[in-house]
Amino acid sequence: MTKENLILLADAYKYSHHKLYIPGTQHIYSYLESRGGKFDETVFYGLQYFLKEYLQGTVFTKEKLDEAEVTLKEVFGRNDVFDRSRFEYIIDKHGGKLPVRIKAVPEGTVVPVRNVLMTIENTDPECYWLTNFLETLLMQVWYPCTVASLSREIKKVVKRYYDDTASATAFGGIDFVLNDFGFRGASSVESAGIGGSAHLVSFSGSDTIAGSIFAKRHYDAPAAPGLSIPATEHSIVTMLGEPGELEIFKHVLNTFPTGTIACVSDSYNIFRACEEYWGTELKEQILSRDGTLVIRPDSGDPIQTLLRVFDILMNKFGFTVNEKGYKVLPPQVRVIQGDGISYSSIPGIFEALKKAGISAENLVLGMGGALLQRVNRDTQEFALKCAYAEVNGKGINVQKMPVEMDANGQLQTSFKKSKAGKLKLVKENGAFKTIGLDEAPQLDDLLETVFENGEVTKAWSFEAVRQAAAL
């Protein structure tokens, strides 16, 4: 269980809301959606972590309340905002467990934007304020959802070029084309675990071990789902200076005489490394290996660099032409591009290879900050909004419908318009659709209760998540 104090894990303004809701409020029902953004669909993933780590069990205690009271009096500088009795009620009546119900789409489900993904409501009328108090923490599910969505969208691009240019028996397969190099660029160890595991929903290549630990700990993965290989960095290859680069390369090959190994080769001159060292001096040793050498350029324009590198390697090592008419290096040699890789650069790289008659199966990718860090809540426009309330026993459909000015000064309804009433997610004729809870009773609600009154009521395995998100 986390050491964090849940009583303090909300935006400061939330502590005044118990007073600001209209008197007589008994029930608040809110929903989460991706309102649009970069991609047309979103992989729902990561909620289970927040439920297990932060919300399940006894989360409010007198000790935590005492701690929170000190901080919140400092934050507000007054005594009429934070109301200790609200939390004492939950401690006394519910044993410190949260009287809320959370429903969500099964994890790994790929849902078109502008559909309900999750709902939350209070189960005790005295705790109407608690529903949206939890928004601050639960909204952070945007991060694993967005990384999982980004990774899956890249897999679509890779699959397209594999379908066009790669042989059916391509070495390693598509699951190892995109490798997560993002641990050092993540904002925290927790982010690396959350985002790293989200990438592993679609791919199996990763140097972010935290992602595998996360999947094992919170999604019962039986073994590490993220796999890696031995590889050099520049500190290794530059140890003997430029004159000693060839000796280092020999040492790398001798140290791992079998299996896959990667070697960064741009410390001085990537083209000399490919032509004179790998392709001449070490050529026979490489071709006689039971395994694959993966050569890594790490600077320069990715497209121009890769085209020249492949031209050199194919001249030196030879190539075959696969059944789709594209050139393939011998299985002992491949290339990994880990510099300048992003969702926007990947299609151009594969397209350039295709135009040059080079199969996509020759190349794998490493992606760091652009995978785990160059995303935010607005990448997929995540929002959690109240859609239904009960005041003095009367149900009210709640909705925001902002009017805004466009660039031409014309009034229009904002894309931030929210949904009204209790909701369900259904599938009709194979398409997802959000409708009112009482509409179309013949269609099953795909939202399942995953948390109720302090207990996680439904959990997903990592394998189930992967299967649900599979292309």
UniProtKB/TrEMBL annotation:
Keyword entries, A-Z: Glycosyltransferase, Ligase, Pyridine nucleotide biosynthesis, Transferase
EC number: 2.4.2.12
Reactions catalysed, as given in the entry: beta-nicotinamide D-ribonucleotide + diphosphate = 5-phospho-alpha-D-ribose 1-diphosphate + nicotinamide + H(+)
Residues where diphosphate binds: 184, 234, 296
Highest taxon of source: Bacteria
Domain Nicotinate/nicotinamide phosphoribosyltransferase: 176-415
Pfam family, one: NAPRTase
Domain (Nicotinamide phosphoribosyltransferase N-terminal): residue spans on this chain: 5-102
CDD domains the record matches: PBEF_like
Family stated for the protein in its record: Belongs to the NAPRTase family.
NCBIfam families: PRK09198.1
PANTHER family, per the entry: NICOTINAMIDE PHOSPHORIBOSYLTRANSFERASE
Name the record gives this protein: Nicotinamide phosphoribosyltransferase
